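INTERNAL AUDIT FORM
Audit reference: QA-55
Scope: verify that the stored structure record matches its stored sequence.
Auditor: D.O.
Record contents follow.
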Amino acid sequence: MREKLREMGVVGAGGAGFPTYAKLKQGGIDYYIANGAECEPLLDVSKEIMSRFPDKVLKGLTYLKNFTGAGEAIIALKGKYKHPLKALKTELNSNTDFNVRLFEMGDFFPAGDEQVLVYDVTGRVVPEGGIPLLVGSVVNNIETLYNVYNAVEEDTPVIDKFITVGGDVKNPITLKVPVGTNIGWLLDFLGVDYKGKVIIDGGPMMGNIINPGLPIVKTTGGLLIFSKDHPAVTVKESNMEYILKMARISCIQCRYCTEQCPRYLLGHNLQPSKIMLTVGFRLSDNYIKQALLCCECGLCEAYSCPQHLSPRRVNQVIKKELAAAGIKYTAGKTAFEPREAREWRKIPTARLKTRLELTAFDRPAPLVDGNFVKPPEVCIPTKQHTGAPAVPTVVTGDKVHRGQIIGKVPEDKLGCYIHASIDGTVIQSNKDKIVIRGEES
């Protein structure tokens, strides 16, 4: 199973792209959880996959549960997702081979944060700086389970990516796109007007502003289009010098960022307000390491702060500096309890949408199935996952077919193979990327 998923290039489709095979431990797993919360507003990928392919999701989860010997398999999704719930329940009722439980979550942000999800499903708090496996849990994204099914049952590698194209567009849509497709070409192909606007890769909270010259990769969650002055954009654009200056001038230590932080509410010692005080006045470095506990959900900057400061951006910079210095967070204890205020400090998604002025764009993005997107060229990065980049196995001039292995990761390194997503000719191959021109170009 591990080797199959490694060769088929299956990685986490909803986050940092952690190779799925590396999560598979035999024994010691009480809960194998499928994350169907999809808590980022305006994204519909997980909902659409569960609605249209419930059998593949359930089979993919069952393969992993059986391989690891997990005590229970659970799909966690919001109770308001009526169509996915109906599809999954119908499939479960018609097929007794599935031993999977559905867990209906509340409609709050960030319900899909891995550690928030684990606590809500299991009642166990992942220790500071830890992973779900420390409390007997493994979590996978819904699309990852779909890809597991394809890899195991159909011998199909990860060569396509489901994405939602939404935001300030006429007709939001969810579709399947070959990995490596140029984003600008795709938006032009779909007739989306993005000139003079901003493209966000991912959701409005945790996504990043990107340029249209980049390719779709295995972890692309969605493409959201906004005007340059939209709050979802302006909250991401301040430069760090300005942010640090404003931390010193404007932070009033109201603690809203701390009191509404989902990791703080789980009982972790993460206090964004103290970190802002530290970087603003450099009185002490006692709180700096807490930045390593930040899940970068963005609530602090987009919702909580009355001064429109950016604790998340500050934490991102600190995390990079600490990582470069080889500094890790060491928890002082192993057992944690959520804070009493957690239940009434969860942020309703509807309120978040109103604050970020997303309500007007909150429309269904139905899945248009089929491989109708045929780019003339794809650019496939050798590193689309946590770990070592793939080493190209093709050179310029080689003819390749869709699904062919074009890059391998050394056996002693963490990582996954990469594959050609279209038929064509390799026109560039180096340590960073492989470019393939389609046969019809």
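Auditor finding: record pair retrieved intact. The first strand starts at residue 31 and ends at 36.
Action required: none
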